[in-house]
Specification:
heterodimer, A: mainly alpha, MetI-like fold, 9 helices, B: mainly alpha, 12 helices, 81% helix
Chain lengths: 244, 260
Amino acid sequence: MLEWIAGLASWELLALEPPGWGGVLLGGLAISLQVAVGGYLLGFLIGVGGATGKLYGGPILRDLLDVYTTLVRAVPELVLILLLYYAGTDALNQLMLLIGAERVDISGLAAGIFVIGVVQGAYQTEVLRGAFKAVPHGQIEAARAYGMSSLQVLRRITLPGMLPHAVPGLANLWLIATKDTALLAVVGVAELTLVTRQAGGTTKSYFLFFCAAGLLYLLVTLISNVGIRRVERYARRGMPAVRS
Amino acid sequence: MSPEIRSWREPHRLVLLAIGIGIIVFAAINMRWDWLPRYSGRLVEGVGTTLWLLFLTSALGFLLAVPLGLAQAAGPFWLSGPARMFCTVIRGTPLLLQLWLLYYGLGSLFAYWPEIRQSWAWPYLRSAWPYGVLALTLSFAGYEGEVMRGAFAGVPKGELEAGRAYGMSPLTVFRRIWLPRAIHRALPTLAGETVLQLKATPLVATITVVDVYAIISRVRQDTYLTYEPLLLLALIYMILTGILVLAFRWLEAKVPVKGG
């Protein structure tokens, strides 16, 4: 027991320089954040495309997108990450062989961004579709009646109108993206959770390192929340305040 | 019935359906499935473990979420503060990290404690599933506690005042009005939370609990197959999710939504 408390309190293990593991943890955090940001942005691109396709696409496109969003949302992220990780790297290598190039080693970072992006894309499609639909049709018709082009309608009416409906969902998905990066530990990407376990395994101070990593994740969430609140206030300007 | 379900007979859907069936038949013929009979018994057991984990942790988590929500909605600061902090920490860190913290961190703590090593609880504390159950329960409680906070706060004050005016004690008001109304308000989110919980259960395989995901990992190690076991696993989870969604839809239709 005493030994354990001593282990918990040995803060020098968290030092940034090599006998300590603090630098390794921060490096893991940097990878986690890169994957989260990259995956989130990729997911946003997929989401914009998916929402547009679901609302304005032909029947076949709409059905295919339905299959995509339903599949991704029904299967655990862990399973999807494994499937997409292997399938994605395999497909890319097949493609490289096909065009006569060498096999490439895909970095865990790129594969992670791809995987998180595909998962996020399905959820963001649904959020953006809902937000698009929340803009009253009369406003769009009124804009048309004023003689605005469809691009002007998009810029002046649809986008500002959908923003307050999209921001809460998108903010939530950002928080989910930062936490989903932890799942990449299972396929060996050296992000925060995996390097934390390695640090704990080497030094046997699991408790200390997992608490430190938890604190880092929590900081990311709390700082994100501050930013989210600002964006939300901007998006909802001129609208009645929400009661929580 | 939504229009999407009614109109599956449209020509393009029939074509898509045919292509989908074609892909499934192609996969069934051209991929290796000979391992399936050997593992079918264990797979069924694994699905059982997954469902058992899901229902146990959802039920326990919900029981924990009620006081968490109540403390945040109406408790004094020394109750609402910790409750809010608990929900923030649970919702702000990845479940995988919480699970590993409990399993590796607490596990190593207990091993240093001779009183625990000699107690009756040690055989349980040495196995993995209690940590899995604990982590999943706390996670469900954290997310659902936030929902229950909103649900408790959203019950109209007038109803509670009416109960008091009838001479009910605060406990009776809580039991007859506040709690039932809050649970009623939280019901629609329960379906989504339970599906999320199902999708969180495979994480326990990383601490050696043998659920359906762990069985499939075993198959992958034994047979060196990459895709077949994972595709089957995805199919299993899709079926489970579908059953859950239908069950909740049925349940919600049973509960009257009058005044909800």
